Amino acid sequence: MATADADVDAEVPRAASSPVEPPLPPLDEIVAALTEYRWLARTYVIEYHVERLAERLPPAWQAALAATPLPEVTRRLLSGDDEGLAAWPDSLRAYAVACRRLALDRRPRGFHGAPPCELDRALLSGLSDKKRHEIERLVPVVAHVVRAARATLVVDIGSGVGHLARTLAYLVGVDVVGIEGNPAYVAGAVERDAKCAALLAGRARAGDAAAAALLARRRATRHLAHFVRTDTDGAAFEALVRRALDLRPGAPTPPLVIVGLHTCGDLGPTLLRLFAEQPFVRGVVSVACCYMHMTEDSDDEFVAPPPAGRLGYPLSRAVADRLPDAHLGWKLREMACHALDAYEARARVAPA
Fold first, then answer.
1. In this structure, what DSSP letter does residue 188 have?
2. Contacts of 66 (CB under 8 A, 6+ apart)
3. 213 lies in the same domain as 90
4. Of 289, 304, 331, which residue constitutes the final position of a domain?
5. Given its phi and psi angles, is residue 162 left (phi above 0), alpha (psi -120 to 50 degrees) or beta?
6. Which end of the chain is more exposed for a tag (fewer CB within 10 A), N or C?
7. Residue 222 to residue 38: CA distance in whole angstroms
């Protein structure tokens, strides 16, 4: 079988090689800050109004924040203005500095800067504007990982009605398996695959060169109805892949990349575990969401009891060794889903 470098469609936008990532903040310092400020971190903005939490802040904090306009508070917290922080009490300044120093850098790097691909109108059928936006930007990322991993197969977990899987089969130049738990969605994906191919074939017969080129590049797409859960281990996942491909006994499992768009809750950690456990899984592209639905054995009243499978958090032994201090809880994980930009934009405007 040809390597991914030879198979990947040249028209998918390429990106520069990924630069070295900056070092992560020391884990012990993150856990220490989480322990010290847990009382503050596990609160929603609305609780400061409904439950009057602002009145429970240290008196020195209350006085300093009351004397500082909200846009200026935001500027000092986010801009790195140490001179502005000097006017605050030491404990509030220490909190601001710790948050800024330990925050992860969210700026995109490397292949994340690849331009979006353009989808043919046959692939746009049934796509919402949101899904189109996501797929046009995710396909170049998957193509980059497939090339780097020299994979010959992409497995889309939670593939729904197959929009992403279908696009990858036409544009990335590798076979695609979509695994989806809802049988109705699987049937819909098969139906949409056939409709897309028929539309392109009709245009190709009418002399549409773009449609003919897409059909010539298309690789096989298969769909399988199955739920991937926290108790799906590497061996079970390999059996799923082999079943979808109808591989004969003794045939090697092809090198593959796992893809997940909207890997809700525990599904994100599960994909990372499969990547870590099986050498034939050479890459993973996971756009995670709904962190609050990850399972965690903490004292938070919103956390569901641990399931029969493995917990979604923590994933690493290093974090597990620091429990219970490293516990997050439902509120912290839910707030991690929020876009900081939206809060920042509102906070930079002085209230009327």
1. H
2. none
3. no
4. 289
5. left
6. C
7. 47
Q: Which of 172, 181, 194 is nearest to 125 (CA)?
A: 194
Mark whether 138 and 76 lie in a shared domain.
no
Domain that holds residue 35: 27-106+339-347
Residue 254's Cα: distance from chain center in Å?
A: 24
81 and 131 share a domain? Answer: no
What pTM was estimated for this model as a whole?
A: 0.84
165/244 Cα distance (integer angstroms): 14
Each residue of 106-121: b (16+ CB within 10 Å) or e?
Answer: eeeeebeebeebebbe
pLDDT band at 70 (very low <50, low <70, confident <90, very high): confident
CATH number of the domain within which 172 lies: 3.40.50.150
Copy the structure tokens of residue 220: 């096989």
**165 and 239 inside one domain:** yes
In a domain, 92, yes or no: yes
Q: What is the mean pLDDT of the chain?
A: 86
